[in-house]
Amino acid sequence: xxxxxxxxxxxxxxxxxxxxxxxxxxxxxxxxxxxxxxxxxxxxxxxxxxxxxxxxxxxxxxxxxxxxxxxxxxxxxxxxxxxxxxxxxxxxxxxxxxxxxxxxxxxxxxxxxxxxxxxxxxxxxxxxxxxxxxxxxxxxxxxxxxxxxxxxxxxxxxxxxxxxxxxxxxxxxxxxxx
Length: 178
Prior knowledge:
Largest sheet: 6 strands, antiparallel
Shape: globular
Strand content: 25-35%
């Protein structure tokens, strides 16, 4: 039995990266949390052309990263309330899945963490940290130290989610703003 112990430790070590994964919300739950007054959600074709990608990069100071984005529009009956855009960024080693709710003016309404897979830094899911994004736009206060506070022990997760929200706010400004 003692000969198997080192092998089982090696096997467990291989699983340790995913042992911390926590799914907090499904996409449907995130939509409902961000727009509880919505009566329906409809998929949005969110495709960036080359000119829009350049605009996003200029506005956010970050690479646009992709031409296609997963998004839904939230409606109360026939009235457009805003949008939810889904994304993933790397924390330190693993992906963080999140959703950004946007008003029709492209300001951030709410940020929700859908899944967190790191062993440390899960504090980014705390409501007080996520509330810092509310009302901000790509051009106003969406950087660590200038509108968004860092969390000790979650530095990379904070920075990467903040960058992701800034990128999405820029995409909204360029493509979705009404």
